[in-house]
Task: structure prediction
Amino acid sequence: MNNEKETARKQLDSWHVSTYPGARAALQKRPLNGWIRAIRYALGMSGRQLADRLGISKNSVSAIEKREQDGSVTIRMMMRVGEAMDCTFFYGFLPDGSFEEIVRRRAEEVARERIDRINQTMRLEGQELPVERSEEIWRREVDRLVEGTPRTLWNNSAIQGRTIARERDKWK
Result:
């Protein structure tokens, strides 16, 4: 097993769960007009006051708030605005499940695509594997992919760089 990658996934999983347990719920409830405007309102700070603290025009503050809403504001600007409002800007990714689950789901997809393609070729040659054997091979392939976590796991083509014949011969 590739212990370094597995350890890295476990460390990230524990960091996300323990550090920001309510982050996903908070992000799903993002204020309609954006965080900057919502925080300004909560602080009782006008656009002019924020502009003064940033050393920019009031129109620039409006533009920043619009860019936040459409997702084009820069991280650097969000950090500056956060500081001007006595807040710390947080930037990060919240995985859809644990990193282990993400890798396993992708490994299952890749293994399924590989098995299905190889089985199709074998079917055309009259050598299709029984369902039980196919599922056993699929489970082994998933485990192999999770343990090795090859970079090719994330290629758009799950069998990129491999020939169907080579895979088929390995499983006979």
